[in-house]
Write a structure and sequence with these properties.
By secondary structure, this protein is an alpha/beta fold. It has 2 helices and 8 strands. The strands form 2 sheets. A 4-stranded mixed beta sheet has the order 1-4-3-2, with helices on one face. It has a 4-stranded mixed beta sheet with strand order 5-8-7-6, with helices on one face. Strand 3 and strand 4 form a beta hairpin.
């Protein structure tokens, strides 16, 4: 059996972002209302967003407190087709960007911002 071309893992099905109990409401408002992600389900201390085959989940974890002290460790990239338009809409919703939309050497565009816990997020527009 040739396992060389048989990947061990399939596609990423989702991302889970843990937050402190006293940060959950702020995080929920940010992802649901500011980013307008489609809410799939919600219960106390837990919210799940889903579009296509991808899921992003927010959850309360008792061992998490405060903001992320190492926000560059992991970045979540959201694909967009109009990075400038998405950037302007989010900026109008008071999202603070640490990097304005810029074209990368490989032809795509990137802009960077953070959620209320300080986790790094990016909008990514792939080249045509």
């Amino acid at each position: 059996m040739d396992t060389k071309n048989d990947p061990l893992l399939g596609a990423v099905g989702g991302v889970l972002i843990w937050t402190a109990p006293d940060h959950f409401d702020k995080m929920l408002i940010f992802y649901r209302d500011i980013l307008s992600l489609p809410l799939r389900g919600e219960r106390t201390g837990f919210a799940n967003f889903a579009w296509g085959n991808f899921k992003l989940t927010l959850g309360v974890h008792t061992k998490v407190s405060g903001v992320n002290h190492d926000p560059l460790r992991i970045m979540v990239n959201f694909l967009v087709t109009d990075i400038q338009g998405s950037y302007e809409k989010l900026r109008d919703r008071n999202v603070f960007f640490t990097r304005k939309p810029e074209e990368e050497s490989w032809g795509g565009w990137v802009t960077t911002f953070a959620d209320p816990d300080g986790n790094t997020l990016q909008l990514l527009q792939l080249p045509d």
